Amino acid sequence: MRLEIERKFLVAGEGWRAAAARASEFRDGLLGQFAHGKVRIRLDGDKAWITVKGARQGIARPEFEYEIPLADAEAMLANLCHGRIIAKTRSFIPHGGLVWTVDEFRGPLEGVVLAEVELDAEEQALSPPDWVGAEVTGDLRFRQSTMLHLSATLKRAVTLADLLALPEAGVS
Description:
With about 170 residues, the protein is α+β, with helices and mostly antiparallel strands.
């Protein structure tokens, strides 16, 4: 079993753009949520995956990911995700021996930009690049499901200002 150990941050400025080694266009669809976990479909170009993520324990959680046929993923997005689809450009930026990712969301989350970094251990030392802003790891306002729900409620794209205006939704 693989553990996903990641930290999430706001992005401060555009400095990351010049450092990006590559970028990918993703579409993520939420198939379902359960007892603090989820099942997601992801398309990245001509490849697709189904991912099952379990309950968080600190900043770690179990993750199971399997490549699936692209046609199956497209059909699941079209027929099973029912508006719970996120489109984003993910840029990959090497820094301090780690690969940071910056997600620029489109569609209902247009304009939201977040950075993440995956770690080998929860206590791993971290030296964030200068374009990394406040840490939002565990802040429920910045979970994709929360952001999609807010967009549906507002009936428009969600902005960073909308998210910051919400009371901090707890940490888990």
